[in-house]
Amino acid sequence: MTHEELLALAERAAEHAYCPYSDFRVGAALLTLSGEVFCGCNVENASYGLTICAERTAVGAAVVAGHRQFSAIAIVQGAASSLEPCWPCGACRQVLAEFNLDMTVIFRAPEGLRTMTLRELLPHSFDVTRLQVP
User: Fold this and answer.
1) Alpha-carbon span 51 to 30, nearest angstrom
2) DSSP of 31-82
3) Cα–Cα nearest to 28, from 52, 53, 46
4) pLDDT above 90 for 102
5) CB 29 within 8 A of CB 13
6) H-helix or E-strand spanning residue 127
7) Which of 28, 40, 62, 126 counts the most CB atoms within 10 A of its CB?
8) Which residues of 42-62 are buried (b: 16+ CB within 10 A; e: fewer)?
């Protein structure tokens, strides 16, 4: 699957976002190592802290289907008037890091398609090694 195809799936997912409070639609398309794609959109809640981001919705769908290995994720702000990348929040970065710090993160940007690794987005992630007591 190409990066453009993954972005198109994320854009389609953003159309389904439930965002009555912010009107900030986000879509994500998560590619597994086996080539399957799981999409997610943000789901807001009147109790703002209970809002679920598109990235975590996609991860949840993939995990429910038995997947744990991901190679890439495309993230877009749907119907955006700006082409600025829709950066994942810190919580989403950490959730994605649980599965693969080297996954490719794909965005649209003013200069065109932009990619980077999750490790670049979250250089000092918390991981299981921190849980081990010496």
Assistant:
1) 19
2) EETTS-EEEEE-B--SSGGG-B-HHHHHHHHHHHTT---EEEEEEEETT-SS
3) 53
4) yes
5) yes
6) none
7) 28
8) bbbeeeeeebbbbbbbbbebb
DSSP state of 29: E
Q: Which residues fall within 8 angstroms of residue 67, CB to CB, at 6 or more apart?
A: 32, 34, 36, 38
Which amino acid is present at 118?
L
| DSSP state letters, 4-28 | HHHHHHHHHHHTT-B-TTT---EEE
83 DSSP 8-state letter: -
Given a cut of 90, is residue 111 above it in pLDDT?
no
The residue-averaged pLDDT of 4-21 equals 97
Smallest CA-to-CA distance from 73 within 34, 116, 43 is with 116
pLDDT at 113 over 80: yes
